[in-house]
Amino acid sequence: MSLKFAFNLKSNDFEKLKYIIVGDNPGKNEYEQNKFFIGQSGTQLRNHFKNNGLTENFEEECLIFNKTFLSTDKTNGLNNIKEKISSKNFDRILYFSAYEIANYSNNLNLPILIFGKSKLEKGKIFYPFWNKLSELCDSNKIFVFSHPSNSNFTKEWNKHRATQKNKNNRELLNYIGQLNTQKLNNSNG
C-alpha cells in the first residue's frame, strides 16, 4: 500500500478570512489538484454558504483544511492506513492537523467549522484529532456540523431553520455548530 498525501496549496489573504473550514480527509480530486473540498460535497458547501449569505466569496473568506492530509478515495479507507502505519503514527498525523488548525484559529481569531461529526466520538477514527483540537482552542471557537455529503448538512440546516425562524443565517450557523459541539463534548465526557 502506498500512502497518498494532499495539502491545500491555495494561498489566502489572511485579512479577508472569516472561517476555517475542516473536512474529513482529501479524496481523489483533492489529491490530484492539491485543493480541498472541491468534489460534490465541497460544491454543495460552497453553494450553501453563498446562497445563505454566509460568504460573498467562499474561496477568499475560508481557509480550508482536513482532519488529516492522508488521501483515500473513501474516508473509511483510513482504517486500512491506520492498521498499516500503526495507531501511534496515524494519531501523530491527526495531531499535526489539529496543531496547524489551532495555530491559525488562535493567531487569526477565526472560528473553526468542522464538517463531519460522526467520526469524532471516542473510539472513532478522528477522535484523537478532536481531543487535541479541543485542548488547543477555546471551545467557543469550534463549531461542528454534519458533513455536506448526501445533503446531510443541508438537511441539518433545514431542520433547525424550521424551529429557529428568529435567527439570521449567521446566528443559525452558530446555533447548529454550538449545539453539535456541546452534544459531542457530552458524549465524549
Automatic annotation (TrEMBL):
Gene3D superfamilies: Uracil-DNA glycosylase-like domain
Protein name: Uracil-DNA glycosylase-like domain-containing protein
A Pfam entry, by short name: UDG
SUPFAM superfamilies linked: Uracil-DNA glycosylase-like
Domain Uracil-DNA glycosylase-like: 16-162
